Amino acid sequence: MSHRQPDLELSPKVSDEVRKTTCYMCACRCGINVHMKAGPDGKEQVAYIEGNRDHPVNKGVLCAKGSAGIMQVNSPSRLRAPLKRVGPRGSGAFEEISWEEALEIATGWLKPLRDEAPEKLAFFTGRDQSQSFTGWWAQQYGTPNYAAHGGFCSVNMATAGIYTMGGAFWEFGQPDWDHTKLFILFGVAEDHDSNPIKMGIGRIKARGARVIGVNPVRTGYNAVADDWVGITPGTDGLLILSLIHVLMKSGKIDLDYLARYTNAPCLVAQAPGTDQDGLLLRDGDGKPLVIDRASGTLTPFDQPGARPDLSATHEQDGVTYRPVLHLMAERYLSDEYAPEVVAERCGIPAQKIRAVAAEIARVAFDEAIELDREWTDFRGEKHARMIGRPVSFHAMRGISAHANGFQTARALHVLQILLGTVEVPGGFRFKPPYPKPSEIHPKPHCKATPGAPLDGPHLGFVQGPEDLALKPDGSPARIDKAFTWDNPMSAHGLMHMVISNAHAGDPYKIDTLFMYMANMAWNSSMNTKGVMEMLTDTDESGEYVIPRIIYSDAYSSEMVAYADLVLPDTTYLERHDCISLLDRPICEADAAADAIRWPVVEPDRDVRGFQSVLIDLGVRLGLPGLVDADGKAIYADYADYIVNHQRKPGIGPLAGWRGDGTGAGRGVPNPGQLDRYIENGGFFVSHIPEEAAYYKPWNAAYQDWAVGMGLYDSPQPYLFQLYVEPLRRFQLAAEGHGERQPPEHLRARIKATMDPLPIWYETDQQGNEGYTVNALTQRPMAMYHSWGSQNAWLRQLHGHNPLYVPTKLMRDHGLRDGDWVRVSSPHGQITVPVMEMAALNDNTVWTWNAIGKRKGAWALEPDASEATRGFLLNHLIHELLPPRGDGLRWANSDPITGQAAWFDLKVKIEKVAPPAESQPAFAPIASPVRTGPDVLKWKVGK
User: Is residue 127 situated within a structural domain?
Assistant: First the structure.
């Protein structure tokens, strides 16, 4: 009998059209192909999302988050219309209003402030990707109170990198994946630079390179490392300085590299008690001076033909000047950094530290590589080859989010430089628009004038006390106290301190808090319960202490309930975005690149892209740069701004297809620019010439290419700063020199922590009696901040989170998987389930971040696992440290940058009977959107 096969369509129609744009499910900004189909009603819908193989970042690779973007665009928790609060703040009681009413309310609040006291607007944005625009808008408004999320994310890493070598990890640079033979990660969770790092690790391991992971927790990248170093949290800097000690003692540092490209030969004044002590010797043009080996005379560092001497000292006017390398040898050859001395504190055997140092030295010097590629340096010297030391590093929040994070990050950058592995084949490479010396970045501005723009950009890099953001009376000019004696080098601001400072009226009261995509009532706060109380607190007259709150988000997050006015944003496939070289570009080390997002699908709700809303508000407020002399709008919307705005002549948000459509980097606006981006897959790329690919800070060909691209206005060669002189200028002020003086209670701290050479010190949360266990939180690879765990696909990967406890502590406390513990800190307690983890530092517990949700938020059912078994460690953390007994409350942050010290948390754990749900449990909030259906499905296509 014949058997009839079923009729199957073996090649179904995948989509009617493919639209190429940029992912927004994390900060990698990968290229995606969005497949579209016409639905039953004829409207186009997203069918599925895949990676764009032509894109320079991901080359077609796409992670779970990126693929799940379709569920983000169809999420039940999407806000549907502007909202006006009608119940008590925090209740979630709103009424929907029109956009015209919403913008009239916002204008009515913001216009009087701008005319009378613009500093009373605090405008802070979260993990958005349009900070060059939002910062410019705030500058035009005139408030000094603007920053984004970096202050509680990784400002230590970024700032330490800029001051030391003109760039850092993550968006500033990457390993040379083609040539590196040893890749070492410090404190990197798997959400960071996800697809590029996964691809890179796969490439280097395929050709036999080794990976070492230094992290208290062995997950993600560390789980596939060839060697795992389970360090004690907060001691990374001590380990790095011990590695430097071993390498220097064995002579395994690159002296030629140090002499040519760093300030190792620059001369430092040894004049105790004077205002010149510790400063560099400079010529009349301000250039650091070195001793030329051939002539033995003083010469500027960039003098053609100069051969800087690493050993020569100099006497002048009774002062001895010693090279930086002398000072480094004197410090780091000390036995206090010997592996045997630091091993117990770091939780790593001395033999292991020496083994890692030996492997670094072997690969860097015995396996050095050479490329037969000519290049010319900034002194005019021609080189026949490019010499590479194939050791590369990567680090992120794990070493950054500590109160010693700035100096720890500095130490890691110095380690790279001593090895000669930065900007060479096989080492760490900068991504355009980096590298940039710290001196050419803006300095922070803070002068607020009624009815006028701010006097310059809000954020920047101070070079000394004269650049601090202080009022004439010495008080902080910014609500977050950025760029003050409390945290002088806070280049990203202190978003985590805005609400607590505004509530306390310290340094002054504000009127309106305006936030975008910053879930400060929950996941992004240092202490969730405390922040919610501050947002709802009233004064003696019954008015809210923070009078007005405007919030914009695409989703019904916890923060929505605490707003007085909600401006609903679109999802990322429904709007224009600009991933700009002025902001957070998508470059790789071989090219300059930027990208756009564009509305591949139209919203089905009464929502608007936040950037276009800001432009509308700016026009209504009459902000300069947004209206012409007649008060008419200059830009129709954000797409119009992207094309036609010029930050300076010829330089706009996008670098591609400028002028007549052939220009790159520089050129007048091109009306067809966005169309060209869309035709090209949503991105633009300009490759660096081969002879300019390495040695970027000193390579004449790269400097000329960068000028042509508009990255610099003129060549900017510079030396890497092993010794950071601006830090010494703050120490001098603390010693009593200079016109600007720190308050007495901060003098000792500034002198101790702002050392121009990297140091390590214990953080402030040591010694709290009974709290001895380290507690960490990190984001999983499948989530990114709050918005991932309301995604129907991603929830199936992380629907709730346990507290991971090492085997030793499990045994000590008689615990088994599924038991519950009470976790306490000086600030609060939580009750949560546990799970044993062997690959974990013996005295460290940890959990995933952003899984726990407040009942009523994100369109989740009240009994959702995220709300009943999910939890946050934030309840145990605080913006301030426990009282010390000196009458002062010290910030829980890095004393140099103000970086939130999330990872300094110390706790104690104790076994308890299982509660009905994780604690603390807060009352549900009302939601402006309905809860999602039990089954989320829809038909795409006819």
Answer: yes
248 with 260, same domain: the answer is no
Q: 697: which 2 tokens?
A: 């800070």
CATH number for 486: 3.40.50.740
- CATH code at 386? 3.40.228.10
Strand 314-316: give its sheet, edge to edge.
267-270, 319-323, 314-316
- Residue 687 tokens read as 């490759």
Phi first, then psi, for residue 420 (nearest 5°) are 75, 35
- Structural domain boundaries enclosing 486: 83-156+438-568
Please tell me whether the overall predicted TM-score, pTM, comes out greater than 0.90 for this model.
yes
Count structural domains, the chain.
5
Give the whole-angstrom CA distance, residue 18 versus residue 342: 57
Q: Quickly state the pLDDT bin for 461 (edges 50, 70, 90).
A: very high
DSSP string, 660-675: TTTB-SS-S--TTHHH
Instruction: Give the integer Cα–Cα distance in Å for 48 and 69.
Output: 9
Query: Are 121 and 205 in the same domain?
Result: no
- pLDDT tens track for 103-156: 999 999 999 999 999 999 999 998 777 889 999 999 999 999 999 888 888 899
For residue 163, is it within any domain?
no
Sheet of 31-38: strands edge to edge? 17-22, 31-38, 44-51
Residue 526 pLDDT class (50, 70, 90 cuts): confident
**SS in 3 state form for 851-902?**
CCCCCCCCCCCCCCHHHHCCCCHHHHCCCECCCCCCCCCCECECCCCCCECH
As a whole number of Å, the end-to-end CA separation of the chain is 37
- Closest to 561 in 3D by CA, of 124, 925, 77, 932: 925
Last residue of a domain, one of 278, 313, 333: 333
Q: 261 near 435, Cβ under 8 Å? A: no
Are both 851 and 826 inside the same structural domain?
A: yes
CATH for 59: 2.20.25.90
In a domain, 734, yes or no: no
Q: Is 684 helix (H, G, I), strand (E, B) or coil?
A: strand
Per-residue pLDDT at 432: 95
- Of 650, 654, 651, whose CA–CA distance to 638 is shortest? 654
Whole-angstrom distance, CA of residue 646 vs CA of residue 648 = 5
